[in-house]
Specification:
This protein has 493 residues and is α/β, with parallel strands linked by helices. It folds into two domains: 246 residues, Rossmann fold (3-Layer(aba) Sandwich), CATH 3.40.50; 211 residues, no CATH class. 41% of the residues lie in helices and 12% in strands. It has a five-stranded parallel beta sheet with strand order 4-7-10-1-11. Strand 8 and strand 9 form a beta hairpin. The protein is elongated.
Length: 493
């Protein structure tokens, strides 16, 4: 394997030709690599789900147009993940002058220190190779960010040690933006950045340079700038000033998953479900559907604040809690397979209540109550999807004849199945879910409990803490004689 060039002289005789490095900007690099990827026919970015026909084509257009762009969307819409994925469009590595704070081009350095080094050593100037993951610089905008943090400042210690004037370029301490030179600079939650700091970004976005501390020092940086923001932030915590918006080439709106299957794919990709420890985690598909449907219902529920959004992190953390509760039960029951049930979804309330903001009506009822209503609504909707048109009257009739069944949260699969077998025909209905009771007691227990919870959600049977699933005794209507029996007159005082 041929070693990498270590000096400028060796670099000149390598595939990293001088002409190519001098002429191509980072936006050209992104554009060329994107065109190559599009020509290959593969996915634009790995791990980005649900944006194939909406967001990703717009991001591709922005890159092909060499635009700085901003992603607008509510929390938990993969905005930051998408920005970080842009590094996949950078070259594997890039030659820089070794030790340079701003990743200077060996053929055309812009900082004074590198220019002096090049004059002194010429072709012996040391070079290094910067991996693409180090060419991405990200900053979360907060009100306390200063111009010095973003652009840079004069370092009096450098001036004292080197015997330089304060106005000398060698005394500059570079901020985050110059350190992103020849790479991607991302700012998250742009409206939170103070207006005067946003003004400091004007030059780099339009003229391609920055000035440090008022001294006439021009740094023609080569940076692709990208941003994220929540649309509500324009009127809430802050706003993007108009001149800065005008300099942003493309404004791209993100969104939550459009379908349950897309949401399930995201959760399976992001959630920690493979626990190890000798136990196999098997999550029934209807449990995945219920967990995702909770988020879908929350985004439209009038008791939940739609302006803050319901993050896709909610079903991810909910699913992790669901599996953990099932794992805890399997350990206690000494079962080798971890299969979540509906009871585990209710046990995941702590992963739900902190993930949404409530409107006034919701605050009156409380987050726990709202979350339980969402779970019940999700169960009812998914139950209807799988069992609409199926005759479950025999199951309902068993309860109407006085039967009751309490399914304990910590009961083993065998105990639950033994209870479900008492209900004639119940376990036969699990075939609608693709589950055969004889194949797996754990899956049968989960499916059987889902059927009972679905009937409860549609108010065909009841449920209480004491008796479990049952049918409430209906109060008998008063007879004709009782209705019209003369009432005794009340004595006057």
């Amino acid at each position: 394997m041929k070693s990498k060039p270590k000096t400028l002289g060796e670099l000149r005789h390598s595939p990293h030709s001088e002409e190519r490095l001098q002429c191509r900007s980072v936006k050209d690099e992104l554009r060329e690599n994107l065109m190559r990827r599009l020509g290959g026919g593969g996915p634009l970015f790995e791990g980005i789900v649900g944006f194939d026909d909406t967001v990703l084509p717009q991001v591709g257009n922005a890159v092909l147009s060499r635009h700085n762009f901003i992603l607008l969307g509510l929390r938990g819409q993969a905005k930051t993940r998408l920005l970080r994925a842009l590094t996949e469009l950078l070259d594997d590595e890039l030659p820089v002058i070794a030790g340079c704070e701003i990743n200077d081009n060996p053929y055309a350095p812009i900082c004074r220190g590198c220019r002096l080094l090049l004059e002194e050593k010429g072709d012996n100037t040391p070079v290094a190779f910067l991996p693409r993951e180090f060419r991405y610089v990200e900053k979360l905008a907060t009100p306390d960010v200063t111009i010095a943090d973003m652009i840079g400042d004069i370092d009096p210690i450098k001036a004292a040690r080197g015997g330089h004037q304060l106005s000398d370029e060698l005394t500059i301490h570079f901020g985050l933006l110059p350190r992103a030179n020849r790479g991607i600079f991302a700012i998250n939650e742009l409206p939170d950045l103070a207006g005067k700091i946003q003004v400091g970004l004007f030059n780099i976005m339009q003229e391609g340079d920055v000035q440090i501390k008022g001294y006439p020092v021009r740094l023609p940086l080569d940076v692709a700038m990208v941003f994220t923001a929540n649309p509500e932030d324009y009127t809430a915590r802050g706003k993007i000033i108009t001149p800065l918006k005008d300099r942003i080439g493309s404004e791209i709106r993100t969104h939550y998953p459009a379908t349950t299957e897309e949401a399930i794919t995201i959760t399976q990709q992001e959630a920690w479900l493979e626990r190890g420890g000798g136990r196999v985690v098997s999550v029934p598909h209807f449990i995945h559907e219920i967990v995702e449907e909770i988020a879908f219902l929350a985004r439209t529920d009038k008791k939940v604040d739609k302006r803050s959004g319901v993050s896709q992190r909610m079903p991810i953390t909910c699913m992790e809690n669901v599996v953990s509760n099932a794992e805890r039960r399997s350990i206690a029951s000494r079962e080798e397979t971890v299969v979540p049930r509906i009871a585990d979804v209710y046990a995941a309330l702590p992963a739900l209540t902190g993930k949404f903001e409530l409107e006034y009506e919701g605050e009156l009822k409380g987050a726990d109550h709202v979350a339980k209503e969402l779970i019940r609504g999700a169960i009812g909707k998914i139950f209807l999807k799988h069992f609409e048109g199926l005759d479950l009257q025999g199951v309902v009739q068993w309860f109407e004849l006085g039967g009751s069944l309490k399914v304990g949260e910590n009961s083993s699969s065998a105990e639950v199945v033994a209870g479900l077998k008492k209900i004639q025909g119940l376990l036969d209905k699990t075939g609608a879910l693709g589950i055969k009771a004889k194949d797996s007691p754990a899956l049968a227990a989960s499916a059987g409990e889902f059927i009972l919870e679905g009937l409860y959600a549609h108010r065909r049977i009841g449920r209480s803490e004491e008796r479990g699933f049952m049918v409430e005794e209906r109060k008998q209507a008063p007879s004709m004689q009782e209705e019209y029996r003369p009432r005794p007159k009340r004595p006057y005082n």
